[in-house]
């Protein structure tokens, strides 16, 4: 993707969709981005569902995506945006320094991962880099991403979720294999309520809101095949 010539042959600015559930942050970010003639903010959304609708209506080139959205998570929204609009490039901008979120965002198709403490120049540099087809990460996150991928190159797939306990990974593995809560309870010789408690903790740590999304994340990491 590059800045696209308009009908007069002049390069048009990249079209940007902002997705964040905090209006003040969203509006401040829009004002900062619009000061750069290389970009124009064409839509804003507070939820993943709004983002998908806005992308269909406004055809953005770039999306700045928060992860902690109400309803559909930022990671699942990114995944669906990439499926529906393969040319759209997503830059995650979040408060989360969690390893699971970092890896999940990359697997979902994000081309960059910035923390919300980034200054305006860093944000604009990241947008230009992603717009031109590159990838960009906050220095701290880039270092951790490299270490994680190095570790996962020799580690079993179940280690892709380091914040989960061993039992939670076991439950997630069985969930991804298609077992019901009752079947998981029988397999592990525990009560149904115990399984549901584990699943609730898994959802919270992975920042997902439903079983289907958790299963997709797990299968992307290689779980559920056993």
TrEMBL record:
The modification 4-aspartylphosphate is found at residue 66. The keyword GTP-binding does not apply. Residues 157-222 form the HTH luxR-type domain. Keywords: DNA-binding, Phosphoprotein, Transcription, Transcription regulation. Residues 15-131 form the Response regulatory domain. The keyword Cell wall biogenesis/degradation does not apply. CDD domains: LuxR_C_like (cd06170), REC_NarL-like (cd17535). It comes from the Bacteria. SMART domains: HTH_LUXR (SM00421), REC (SM00448). It holds the Pfam family Response_reg. This is Response regulator transcription factor. It comes from Streptomyces stramineus. The lineage of its organism: Bacteria, Bacillati, Actinomycetota, Actinomycetes, Kitasatosporales.
């Amino acid at each position: 993707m590059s800045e696209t010539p308009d009908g007069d042959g002049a390069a048009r600015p990249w079209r940007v969709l902002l997705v964040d559930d905090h209006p003040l942050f969203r509006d401040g970010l829009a004002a900062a981005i619009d000061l750069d003639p290389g970009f124009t903010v064409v839509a804003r959304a507070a939820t993943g569902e709004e983002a998908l609708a806005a992308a269909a209506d406004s055809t953005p080139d770039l999306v700045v995506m928060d992860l902690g959205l109400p309803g559909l998570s930022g990671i699942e929204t990114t995944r669906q945006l990439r499926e529906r609009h393969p040319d759209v490039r997503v830059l995650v901008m979040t408060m989360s320094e969690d390893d699971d979120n970092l890896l999940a965002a990359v697997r979902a198709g994000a081309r960059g991962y910035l923390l919300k403490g980034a200054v305006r120049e860093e944000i604009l540099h990241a947008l230009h880099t992603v717009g031109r087809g590159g990838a960009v990460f906050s220095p701290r996150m880039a270092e951790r991403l490299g270490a994680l991928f190095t570790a996962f190159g020799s580690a079993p797939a179940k280690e892709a979720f380091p914040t989960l306990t061993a039992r939670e990974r076991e439950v997630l593995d069985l969930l991804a294999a298609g077992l019901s809560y009752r079947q998981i309870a029988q397999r592990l010789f525990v009560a149904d309520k115990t399984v549901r408690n584990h699943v609730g903790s898994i959802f919270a740590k992975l920042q997902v809101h439903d079983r289907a999304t958790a299963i997709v994340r797990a299968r992307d990491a290689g779980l559920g095949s056993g």
